[in-house]
Amino acid sequence: MELRTLRYFVAVADAGSVNAAAQRLHLTQPSLARQLHRLERRLNLTLLESRGGRLVLTSAGRSFLPHARDLLARADAATAAVAELAAGRLPVITVAAQKLAMSAVLAPFVAGLGADDLCPTVVGCEGADGYRRLDADVDLVLAATPPAPGLDRLRVVRIPIVAYARRDHPLAGRVSVEVAELAGHRLVATGAATDVRRRLDSVVGAIGTEPARVAEVASERLAQALAAAGRGVAVVTDGPRFDLLPIRVLDADGGPLVLDLYAGWKPEHHAAEAVATLARRLQRSAPAAGRDESAA
């Protein structure tokens, strides 16, 4: 069954006569009539009949007409989708993001979207799991784990890792503290599998310092709550809470201890430039304090 012949049938049904439909379709009346007869033979149905000098739909024609319209509508939608894909455009874009990336990068971006902007579909991921989904249902990944070789990447934001202490703590009033010194205090942080904790532990291990005494908690807010209760120094990426004092944490080189968040995507993606454009927009919308203007 040809879509062209279905269009002819629908046109005749809408126009009410072969002659009127032929004029709209820029066809001769005999040619259009032959096409309709061919469709009827193919379907083994009589779709139209002459009654009182007028061409009307048979009961089979009335029943078939909605199906013909549906097939044509879906064909038009598929054609439009192919044109979008061929042009490198994305009608829908799916981003896999770690929890921290959702709050630090995606939330500011979505808050600034205009009425006509495409809002990405967001799914959660852990560690490098999101990158494995690039072959399936994900267009872009936001994670603290750097993309593997072969993937395009952009370092979107550098999030400072901050220590928070109570006003009566020995570190209170300090502008900064080196990791080696911080490790000598009782700390409160999220679990060892979290990105912040892995970053802290890697720096502590690299300088050969004895691992810090760490009380593990489920969230950064709870870490600050325990610090406010005098249970240690919270090491988090959150803003200050509970009247705690922020202290900048320095890495082994004396620079601020940061957690890098990356965007990663497949260079062979049919809309790679559109995905890259979204990654750059995410970078621009990230909080200025942690924004990274260079590709990693």
TrEMBL record:
Family, similarity comment: Belongs to the LysR transcriptional regulatory family.
Transmembrane segments: none
Organism: Microlunatus ginsengisoli
Name of this protein: LysR family transcriptional regulator
Segments forming domain HTH lysR-type: 1-58
A Pfam family the protein falls into: LysR_substrate
SUPFAM superfamilies the UniProt entry points to: Periplasmic binding protein-like II, Winged helix' DNA-binding domain
Keywords: DNA-binding, Transcription, Transcription regulation
